[in-house]
Amino acid sequence: MPFVGSVAPLHVAPLSPAPPPTDLPDGKLVRLLALHEGIPVRHAAPLVVVPPDANVPALVLKLGARAGLDPHPQDAAAFATLDPRVAAPVATILVAVDRAWDLTDAAFAKLTPADRATLLALAQEGRYHDPQFLRLDALVDKAALVDAAILLLDAVEGAAIPALQQAIAAGAWPPAGAWDPVGVLRLGSTGNDTESTDRIVQIDPSGDDTYLNNAGGTTILERVSPPKPGYQVALSLDFGGNDRYDNLAYPSQGSGAFGVGVLEDLAGEDEYRCDMYCEGASNNGVGVLRDYGGDDSYDAGDRAIGFGGGIGVARDDAGNDSYLVSGEAGGNSARLGSVGLLWDQAGTDSYRGRFDDVEIYGFSSNGGDGWLVDEGPETDVYALPHDPLPHACNDCKWRAGISSAIDNRPHGIGLDHHGSLGDLLTEAYLN
């Protein structure tokens, strides 16, 4: 049995060591991935400037109306008494979401609603070579989509997260939390919460929380009847606790379908479970899931955990993590001009498949780039259900995928303590 996601393991001489890019911001990472795919993004995202008269209740009402939620002033009343140390970074996030939404609107401006529905259906069926798909896909302004993601990520990581961390440490966070009833913004409590309402933005300071909602996933593809409003931008932040993310609708958990979805979990031993287009996946959009630490588990079906139908990133910075997937998942891409990345930076990890399916973990098809990068020095395990013994891997490399018609070679690659993400990106981020 070959390596998971491989045609054969290739053991070759180690590449030149590079410093671990633990501080590489996600906005810069998305920009580098986009440039690698030939998407002409800006060199820097435009700054998010909060108007002097902006306030959280008004911004909540604006986003609610934009999403078709029909909010009323009383729906945002809970945010009127926020401590300024909380209100300021929350307002920054809401303004960033609104501006990113402008860019996603621009990205699809040339498509009619019928065009978008057709493009969505063809993508879900995997008909990436269909002439109709190619015609409609060419009308999407992918640079605008990437700019939307960079703008949101830079505002969140560069400004909002540090300010919110200070506010939480200073005791400025409302202990009981605050939220609206329609689905725009939820500020969780300092205790253990369970959330089942889909949100455009949710932020939680601490506690062992359970997320049964979209958790930073755009909602345009959800399998619900009647359909819910389409959130083209979604963000989920959790600052601490051992959390559980569980949602079999899609997309969810930091995934972007026809938009931008982001989930960032900063601490704790977390569990992620989902079905499709989830856990840092994308479908004509940008999806980012980043977990900063803890021993985490990821359980997903098809087109998940760093799947690129656009730009999809699943990033885990530290801890002994376990991954279980089926179908095209785990650093996988299935279309030309897209990239899916699963990047695990440390820990003794396990990568498993439910079925004897080699189209997982660093696998590519249709000319897309599918990458698994495990940069930790520990020996990791890769296994399919009927392997006689698990494969142990350290300092190894493999290539897998269906050869592209462009250059007659696969674009899937797995690196386990053999080089780094920087090697794949020509180490541009180190300059």
Comma- or semicolon-separated keywords:
431 residues; alpha/beta; 9-stranded mixed beta sheet; 26 strands; 23% helix; disordered C terminus
Helicity level, as a percent range?
10-25%
* Gross geometry: globular
Strand content: 15-25%
Main sheet record:
12 strands, mixed
Alpha-carbon Rg, integer = 20 Å
Structural class comes to alpha/beta
Number of strands: 26
N- to C-terminal distance:
41 Å
Instruction: Note the total helix count.
Output: 7
What is the number of domains?
1
User: Which regions have little confidence, pLDDT < 50, spanning 5+ residues?
Assistant: 1-21, 427-431
**Strand order, biggest sheet?**
1-25-26-22-19-16-13-10-7-5-3-2
How much is the average pLDDT? 86
Short summary of the structure?
By secondary structure, the protein is an alpha/beta fold.
Give an overview of the whole structure.
- With 431 residues, this protein is α/β, with parallel strands linked by helices.
- The protein has one domain (8-430).
- It is built from 7 helices and 26 strands.
- The protein has helices spanning 26-36, 56-66, 84-107, 113-124, 131-137, 142-169, 421-424; strands at 8-10, 178-179, 185-187, 194-195, 201-204, 210-211, 233-238, 244-247, 256-257, 260-265, 271-274, 282-283, 286-291, 297-299, 307-308, 311-316, 322-325, 332-333, 339-344, 350-353, 363-364, 369-374, 380-383, 391-393, 396-400, 412-416.
- Strands 1-25-26-22-19-16-13-10-7-5-3-2 form a 12-stranded mixed β-sheet, covered by helices on one side. Strands 4-6-8-11-14-17-20-23-24 form a 9-stranded mixed β-sheet, with no helix packed on it.
- Strand 23 and strand 24 form a beta hairpin.
- Helix 1 runs antiparallel to helix 6 (142-169), helix 2 runs parallel beside helix 3 and helix 4 (113-124) packs across helix 5 (131-137).
- The longest helix is centred in the middle third of the chain and has 28 residues, at 142-169.
- The radius of gyration is 20 Å and the shape is globular.
- It starts with 7 loop residues before the first strand and ends in a 7-residue tail after the last helix.
- Residues 1-21 and 427-431 have low confidence and may be disordered.
